[in-house]
Hints:
Oligomer: heterodimer
Strand content of chain B: under 5%
Number of domains of chain A: 3
Order of helices and strands of chain B: HHHHHHHHHHHHHHHH
Distance between the termini of chain B: 70 Å
Distance between the termini of chain A: 33 Å
Helix content of chain A: 40-55%
Radius of gyration of chain B: 27 Å
Amino acid sequence: MSTDTEAHAPAPHKEAHARSWQGLGWGFIVKLLLMMVINALGVAAIMSAWNAEAWAILAALVLFLVVADWVYFSKRFLPLKYVYPGLVFLLVFQVFAMGYTAYVATTNYGAGHNGTKQQAVDAALIQAEREVEGSATYPLAVVRDGDTIGFAIGDEGVVKVGTEEQPLQEVGGSLDDSGKPTSVDGWEVVPIGDLLSDQALAKEVTDLRVPVSEDANDGSLRTREGSTAKIYRSSLVWDPDADTLTDTDSGVVYSPNDRGTFVGDDGSSLPTGWYVGVGLENFSKAVSDPDYAKPLLRITAWTFAFAFLTVATSFLLGLFFALIFNDDRVRGQKTLRTLFILPYTFISFLTALVWRGMLNAEFGIINDWFFFGADIDWLGDPWLARLSVIMVNLWLGYPYWFLICTGALQSLSSETMEAAKIDGAGRWRQFRSITFPLLLVSTAPLAIASFAFNFNNFNIIFMLTDGGPNFDDTSVPLGATDLLITAIYQISGVQGGRADYGLASALSIVVFVVVGIVSALAFRQTKKLEEI
Amino acid sequence: MATDATATSRDNRRNATRRKRWWAEVGWKYPFAALVIFYAAFPLVFVLSASFDERGSLASASQLFASFSLVNYQELNDTLFWTWMGNSLVIGVAAAVGAVLMGAAAAYAFSRFRFKGRRTSLTGLLILQMFPQTLAFVAIFLLLISLGEVVPSLGINSKLALICVYLGTALGANTFLMYGFFNSIPAEMDEAAKIDGASHAQIFWGMIIPLVRPILAVVGLLAFISAFNDYILARVVLVSQENWTLAIGMYNWVSDQLTARWGIFSAGAVIAATPILVLFLSLQKLIVGGLTSGSVKG
């Protein structure tokens, strides 16, 4: 490192390390280069946020970048130099994510309410687009410039080009006999064969809408097959002043309501809406909506039961093994211990999937080996599935407690045990009155942490049972082994199905609160605060 | 002679009672250990056997090592397995390195500097780390959609974005684990180095980091495993098959009972699990130390 240069430099001790020109070491150069890269990336991101008109992101970027430069090029804020990088990630992906969850919980964000009002208007206009009757058919060539796809048409002998952003305008080029552009200045003509062979490109082309002019009411060019284009125009007209959409075919006027939907004067409504605040409605929906209330209540009860039982069973089994094998007279303890914790060393998502196969009713080895080939439907019956989940998690979890308890047993003072023996306490009495209480004191914080972890143990449930078997008395796709977190995942619809981000976030908040309370208990137990 | 005989018989009797006692107190633990080992190992043996099974179905796998063929391993080459494995490794290693660096730097600051708001920030971190990030997956999903419109490489379907999401927990989860360890290194060593003219950065990189390597290994391994195991955030962020991690891809192989591909799943499971199994066993001592300080492996 640069100890020599810095040690020999006359040190006035007034200047910040970062600005010192006398003791230039490698560290400073590395820092300078890193900050140059970060500033370059930051400025680039700020510019693209400006272009995308994403003001919140722009503000956050500017703030983070300015603070970064301030922290790393000033003499003060020494601790922040070490904490800042982690802090940025923490603020964005943990603190903000939690706050944003709370915000989404008070909206009806989800399927049908999936953006801002302006996006909903644009979507409604596009959805209502129809081919203009009697529209001319223009010979079309698909053109590209890098990643940008555009349409080039021959219109009465001249070539016109446009893209999604850029309305049609005249450019130089040549047409063939049918009026189709064969070359376009500044653009590369995409051969029609490419459209047939490249599915993604074909979809991009059929989705592309090129505005005819700056005026949206002139309609836009679209193509079905990539060789001719027609003019499409929306049957809806947006009037920003009156805040209404009017259907020019039927004359129905749609106006916005406070639920984020356009409702027509004939009582119909448009499918796309925007999200609006609904207060605490999502929370009350969770307890009063007949579709959700009962399943969610059962799921909550099961989540508590699962987290408690899984900690209790694996703790007891681990403790049992630890008591038996914490015995110096047993030889090869090290080897035994390594073999005992094998389940712990196996990747847990794979464990759950392997057991899913082993518990298969027809072909699984559990039935085959241990139940004489009976057809026990372990994962298909609600109670058997619950039992299976706990048994699998027991297999997965006992090694942890075996290790913890072995460690705790070895740290018990032998004097206390001797004293108990001299006082004539039997083995059971020793265990019940001395060993077990002492063990509980040292393992209780870990048990609470484990409870909080299993309360949100998404993988074991999702990989083993998918939450199933499904409840048969409700229409929502929730099941007997669903935990709150897997239920939230289902309801959110990020994987498919009907999305309800609002309700999912509201439930997340509820779980946050529960986990917070449980952890607060652990917090007081661990007395970690006293160490600070 | 007569006294000899009585002595031998007495010896025999004593040996017999001693052996009996040995059996009652220690001996039975060996067969019992065998039972425990069977319980711990049979699923793993089953996977190993199924991976060598020629027909690659659940039904044919119930007979252990009935056939031995590498056909499942060869078939992995026709799938995206190695792509997913690469993704999982890249994401896991990046998340682990980031977690170690950020956690160590923060722990150094909290352990060595005295500044205003230190206690409050430590308490804040302790409270924050209680709230599982996975629960905020909807918000993270929506956040990445917005971010992607500004910086496409941080949007949905980007591995870099997923790494950043994982790094969000680096400070909360690891600072405390490391903080205690850093405190156990005497501050006098820092003082000595400072008198020798070392800067705070030199003390951190040149002195502290080499001394705390054990805890760095534990934090790195735990961060790697939690990223490797994560399904929910990876599934939300990574859309296209080429970007999937092993957890998403292998779940898809066996999630549908009708089309389940247990043969290649088992082969993939053996390949994916073995390196981590070895790593875990070789770092066993360190990890147990880390466990007792309160980290839970997922």
